[in-house]
Design a protein that fits this description.
Layout lengths: L2 E5 L4 H9 L4 E6 L9 E4 L8 H7 L3 E4 L5 H16 L4 E7 L22 H17 L3 E6 L1 E3 L4 H12 L2 E5 L2 E3 L1 E3 H13 L5 E3 L6 E2 H8 L7 E5 L5 E3 L15 H12 L4
Parallel strand pairs: 1-2, 1-4, 2-3, 4-5, 5-6, 6-11, 7-10, 8-13, 9-14
Antiparallel strand pairs: 9-12
Helix pairs in contact: 1-6, 3-4, 7-8
Protein backbone atom coordinates (compact mmCIF):
# COMPACT_ATOMS: atom_id res chain seq x y z
CA UNK A 1 0.00 0.00 0.00
CA UNK A 2 1.32 3.45 -0.94
CA UNK A 3 2.28 5.73 1.92
CA UNK A 4 1.10 9.33 1.98
CA UNK A 5 2.23 12.08 4.34
CA UNK A 6 -0.14 15.06 4.68
CA UNK A 7 1.23 18.26 6.23
CA UNK A 8 -1.70 20.16 7.72
CA UNK A 9 -3.97 17.14 8.18
CA UNK A 10 -6.45 18.91 10.49
CA UNK A 11 -7.04 21.88 8.18
CA UNK A 12 -9.84 22.31 5.65
CA UNK A 13 -7.91 20.99 2.65
CA UNK A 14 -5.95 18.40 4.61
CA UNK A 15 -9.08 16.85 6.06
CA UNK A 16 -10.73 16.60 2.63
CA UNK A 17 -7.61 14.85 1.30
CA UNK A 18 -7.62 12.34 4.16
CA UNK A 19 -11.26 11.52 3.39
CA UNK A 20 -10.44 11.02 -0.30
CA UNK A 21 -7.37 8.84 0.18
CA UNK A 22 -8.68 6.29 2.68
CA UNK A 23 -7.32 3.53 0.47
CA UNK A 24 -3.75 4.75 1.13
CA UNK A 25 -1.58 4.33 4.20
CA UNK A 26 -2.01 7.92 5.38
CA UNK A 27 0.12 9.74 7.92
CA UNK A 28 -0.72 13.29 8.97
CA UNK A 29 1.12 16.13 10.64
CA UNK A 30 -0.21 19.15 12.50
CA UNK A 31 0.44 20.98 15.75
CA UNK A 32 -2.55 19.69 17.70
CA UNK A 33 -3.87 16.29 18.68
CA UNK A 34 -6.16 15.01 15.94
CA UNK A 35 -8.11 11.78 15.70
CA UNK A 36 -9.46 10.43 12.44
CA UNK A 37 -10.26 6.81 11.62
CA UNK A 38 -7.50 5.23 9.56
CA UNK A 39 -5.12 8.18 9.97
CA UNK A 40 -1.76 7.86 11.69
CA UNK A 41 -1.45 11.32 13.18
CA UNK A 42 1.80 12.83 14.46
CA UNK A 43 1.91 16.06 16.45
CA UNK A 44 4.46 18.24 14.70
CA UNK A 45 5.24 21.96 14.96
CA UNK A 46 7.27 23.04 11.94
CA UNK A 47 8.23 26.26 13.71
CA UNK A 48 10.01 24.31 16.47
CA UNK A 49 10.85 20.87 15.06
CA UNK A 50 12.69 19.39 12.09
CA UNK A 51 10.85 17.04 9.74
CA UNK A 52 13.86 14.92 8.73
CA UNK A 53 13.36 12.19 11.35
CA UNK A 54 9.69 11.79 10.38
CA UNK A 55 10.56 11.47 6.69
CA UNK A 56 13.32 8.93 7.37
CA UNK A 57 10.97 6.90 9.57
CA UNK A 58 7.87 6.87 7.36
CA UNK A 59 9.50 6.85 3.88
CA UNK A 60 6.40 8.34 2.19
CA UNK A 61 5.72 7.75 -1.50
CA UNK A 62 3.71 10.97 -1.70
CA UNK A 63 4.08 14.11 0.38
CA UNK A 64 1.14 16.53 0.35
CA UNK A 65 1.76 20.00 1.72
CA UNK A 66 -1.23 22.14 2.68
CA UNK A 67 0.24 23.44 5.91
CA UNK A 68 0.38 26.91 7.41
CA UNK A 69 2.70 28.72 9.78
CA UNK A 70 5.59 31.14 10.00
CA UNK A 71 6.92 31.79 6.49
CA UNK A 72 10.60 31.30 7.27
CA UNK A 73 9.86 28.10 9.20
CA UNK A 74 7.78 26.83 6.27
CA UNK A 75 10.62 27.56 3.84
CA UNK A 76 13.09 25.69 6.04
CA UNK A 77 10.71 22.74 6.39
CA UNK A 78 10.03 22.56 2.65
CA UNK A 79 13.73 22.80 1.88
CA UNK A 80 14.24 19.69 4.03
CA UNK A 81 11.32 17.96 2.30
CA UNK A 82 12.74 18.84 -1.10
CA UNK A 83 16.18 17.51 -0.18
CA UNK A 84 14.61 14.26 1.03
CA UNK A 85 12.38 13.90 -2.04
CA UNK A 86 15.24 14.52 -4.44
CA UNK A 87 17.10 11.53 -2.99
CA UNK A 88 14.18 9.11 -2.67
CA UNK A 89 11.49 7.55 -4.81
CA UNK A 90 8.84 10.01 -3.69
CA UNK A 91 6.95 13.01 -5.02
CA UNK A 92 5.81 16.31 -3.51
CA UNK A 93 2.42 17.95 -4.12
CA UNK A 94 2.54 21.56 -2.91
CA UNK A 95 -0.58 23.67 -2.49
CA UNK A 96 -0.08 27.29 -3.47
CA UNK A 97 -2.46 30.17 -4.08
CA UNK A 98 -3.96 32.64 -6.56
CA UNK A 99 -2.18 35.31 -4.49
CA UNK A 100 1.03 34.64 -6.42
CA UNK A 101 -0.63 36.94 -8.99
CA UNK A 102 -2.05 39.59 -6.63
CA UNK A 103 0.50 42.11 -7.90
CA UNK A 104 -1.28 42.07 -11.26
CA UNK A 105 -5.05 42.32 -10.59
CA UNK A 106 -5.97 43.34 -14.13
CA UNK A 107 -6.76 39.93 -15.61
CA UNK A 108 -7.41 36.23 -15.07
CA UNK A 109 -4.17 34.27 -14.68
CA UNK A 110 -3.12 30.90 -16.09
CA UNK A 111 -0.43 28.35 -15.22
CA UNK A 112 2.21 29.76 -17.56
CA UNK A 113 1.77 33.41 -16.52
CA UNK A 114 4.65 35.08 -14.73
CA UNK A 115 4.02 35.26 -11.00
CA UNK A 116 3.99 38.70 -9.43
CA UNK A 117 2.78 39.38 -5.90
CA UNK A 118 2.17 42.43 -3.77
CA UNK A 119 1.11 40.71 -0.54
CA UNK A 120 3.61 39.08 1.82
CA UNK A 121 1.61 35.85 1.50
CA UNK A 122 1.86 35.86 -2.28
CA UNK A 123 5.58 36.68 -2.18
CA UNK A 124 6.22 33.82 0.23
CA UNK A 125 4.34 31.33 -1.94
CA UNK A 126 6.31 32.40 -5.01
CA UNK A 127 9.57 31.95 -3.11
CA UNK A 128 8.56 28.46 -1.97
CA UNK A 129 7.30 27.44 -5.43
CA UNK A 130 10.56 28.54 -7.05
CA UNK A 131 12.69 26.75 -4.47
CA UNK A 132 10.79 23.48 -4.94
CA UNK A 133 10.93 23.69 -8.73
CA UNK A 134 14.68 24.37 -8.63
CA UNK A 135 15.48 21.44 -6.34
CA UNK A 136 12.92 18.89 -7.55
CA UNK A 137 11.99 19.76 -11.12
CA UNK A 138 9.18 17.44 -12.19
CA UNK A 139 9.09 15.72 -8.79
CA UNK A 140 7.33 18.81 -7.45
CA UNK A 141 3.73 19.38 -8.54
CA UNK A 142 2.38 22.87 -7.80
CA UNK A 143 -1.36 23.16 -7.17
CA UNK A 144 -2.63 26.73 -7.00
CA UNK A 145 -5.97 27.41 -5.35
CA UNK A 146 -8.47 30.29 -5.56
CA UNK A 147 -10.96 31.11 -2.77
CA UNK A 148 -11.82 27.79 -1.04
CA UNK A 149 -15.22 26.91 0.41
CA UNK A 150 -16.35 23.86 2.38
CA UNK A 151 -18.87 22.84 4.99
CA UNK A 152 -16.35 23.53 7.77
CA UNK A 153 -14.65 26.51 6.11
CA UNK A 154 -14.58 29.85 7.95
CA UNK A 155 -16.25 31.52 4.94
CA UNK A 156 -19.25 29.16 5.00
CA UNK A 157 -19.50 29.38 8.78
CA UNK A 158 -19.50 33.17 8.45
CA UNK A 159 -22.33 33.05 5.89
CA UNK A 160 -24.35 30.64 8.04
CA UNK A 161 -23.97 32.89 11.10
CA UNK A 162 -24.92 35.95 9.05
CA UNK A 163 -28.11 34.21 7.88
CA UNK A 164 -29.01 32.95 11.33
CA UNK A 165 -28.26 36.15 13.25
CA UNK A 166 -29.15 38.75 10.57
CA UNK A 167 -25.57 39.99 10.40
CA UNK A 168 -24.04 41.95 7.55
CA UNK A 169 -21.39 40.55 5.21
CA UNK A 170 -19.07 42.56 2.97
CA UNK A 171 -19.47 41.91 -0.76
CA UNK A 172 -17.17 43.49 -3.32
CA UNK A 173 -18.78 45.12 -6.33
CA UNK A 174 -15.82 45.03 -8.71
CA UNK A 175 -13.91 41.96 -7.52
CA UNK A 176 -13.97 39.05 -9.98
CA UNK A 177 -12.81 35.71 -8.64
CA UNK A 178 -12.81 31.94 -9.07
CA UNK A 179 -13.67 29.39 -6.38
CA UNK A 180 -13.38 25.73 -5.42
CA UNK A 181 -14.78 23.36 -2.80
CA UNK A 182 -12.47 21.45 -0.46
CA UNK A 183 -13.94 18.15 -1.73
CA UNK A 184 -13.19 19.14 -5.34
CA UNK A 185 -9.58 19.81 -4.40
CA UNK A 186 -9.25 16.29 -3.03
CA UNK A 187 -10.88 14.68 -6.09
CA UNK A 188 -8.64 16.60 -8.50
CA UNK A 189 -5.53 15.84 -6.45
CA UNK A 190 -6.36 12.13 -6.62
CA UNK A 191 -6.68 12.29 -10.41
CA UNK A 192 -3.39 14.19 -10.74
CA UNK A 193 -1.54 11.86 -8.39
CA UNK A 194 -2.86 8.55 -9.73
CA UNK A 195 -2.27 9.59 -13.34
CA UNK A 196 1.27 10.82 -12.57
CA UNK A 197 0.56 14.29 -14.00
CA UNK A 198 3.32 16.86 -13.73
CA UNK A 199 3.84 20.59 -13.56
CA UNK A 200 1.65 23.44 -12.35
CA UNK A 201 -2.14 23.19 -12.05
CA UNK A 202 -4.78 25.81 -11.38
CA UNK A 203 -7.60 24.05 -9.54
CA UNK A 204 -10.56 26.39 -9.90
CA UNK A 205 -14.01 26.90 -11.34
CA UNK A 206 -13.95 27.15 -15.13
CA UNK A 207 -15.71 30.52 -14.98
CA UNK A 208 -15.04 33.80 -13.19
CA UNK A 209 -17.77 35.55 -11.20
CA UNK A 210 -18.31 38.86 -9.47
CA UNK A 211 -17.92 38.54 -5.70
CA UNK A 212 -21.17 40.45 -5.05
CA UNK A 213 -23.16 38.23 -7.44
CA UNK A 214 -21.70 35.07 -5.90
CA UNK A 215 -22.90 36.00 -2.42
CA UNK A 216 -26.24 37.27 -3.68
CA UNK A 217 -26.88 33.97 -5.49
CA UNK A 218 -26.25 31.91 -2.38
CA UNK A 219 -29.71 32.79 -1.11
CA UNK A 220 -32.73 33.20 -3.36
CA UNK A 221 -34.43 35.46 -0.85
CA UNK A 222 -32.08 38.42 -0.50
CA UNK A 223 -33.66 39.32 2.81
CA UNK A 224 -31.96 36.28 4.35
CA UNK A 225 -28.51 37.72 3.81
CA UNK A 226 -27.57 41.35 4.46
CA UNK A 227 -24.79 42.44 2.16
CA UNK A 228 -22.75 45.59 2.50
CA UNK A 229 -21.72 46.45 -1.04
CA UNK A 230 -18.15 47.69 -1.19
CA UNK A 231 -17.20 49.56 -4.33
CA UNK A 232 -13.76 49.67 -5.87
CA UNK A 233 -12.71 52.34 -8.31
CA UNK A 234 -12.08 49.77 -11.04
CA UNK A 235 -12.58 46.14 -11.97
CA UNK A 236 -9.98 43.84 -10.46
CA UNK A 237 -9.31 40.10 -10.39
CA UNK A 238 -8.21 37.47 -7.92
CA UNK A 239 -8.97 34.73 -10.41
CA UNK A 240 -7.07 31.74 -11.75
CA UNK A 241 -8.20 29.46 -14.55
CA UNK A 242 -6.50 26.59 -16.35
CA UNK A 243 -5.20 26.07 -19.86
CA UNK A 244 -4.62 22.38 -19.19
CA UNK A 245 -6.95 19.70 -20.51
CA UNK A 246 -6.12 16.75 -18.26
CA UNK A 247 -8.80 17.62 -15.70
CA UNK A 248 -11.53 18.44 -18.21
CA UNK A 249 -13.78 15.62 -16.97
CA UNK A 250 -13.70 17.20 -13.51
CA UNK A 251 -14.62 20.73 -14.54
CA UNK A 252 -17.17 22.66 -12.47
CA UNK A 253 -18.76 26.11 -12.38
CA UNK A 254 -19.21 28.72 -9.68
CA UNK A 255 -22.90 27.83 -9.68
CA UNK A 256 -21.94 24.28 -8.62
CA UNK A 257 -20.06 25.74 -5.66
CA UNK A 258 -23.00 28.00 -4.84
CA UNK A 259 -25.38 25.03 -4.97
CA UNK A 260 -23.27 23.15 -2.41
CA UNK A 261 -23.01 26.18 -0.14
CA UNK A 262 -26.81 26.51 -0.24
CA UNK A 263 -27.10 22.90 0.88
CA UNK A 264 -24.58 23.48 3.64
CA UNK A 265 -26.34 26.59 4.93
CA UNK A 266 -29.98 26.90 4.01
CA UNK A 267 -31.00 23.29 4.70
CA UNK A 268 -29.66 23.76 8.21
CA UNK A 269 -31.25 27.17 8.68
Amino acid sequence: MKKMLVLGDSGLVGLAIIHQFKHYDVYGLSRKEFNFKGLKHICFDLEKEEIDVILDTIHPDFIISCTRGDYEAQLRCHKNIADYTSNHDSKLYYFSTANVFDGDPNSIHYEDDETIAESDYGKFKIKCENMLKKILGEKAVILRLPMVFGIQSPRVQEIRKAVQDALTLDAYENLYFTTILDIEIAVQLQYILENSLKGVFHLASKDTMKHLDFYTDIVNNKELLNLKKIDHYEKYYLAIETKRNELKSLEFLNQDVIHCIKNYILQKH
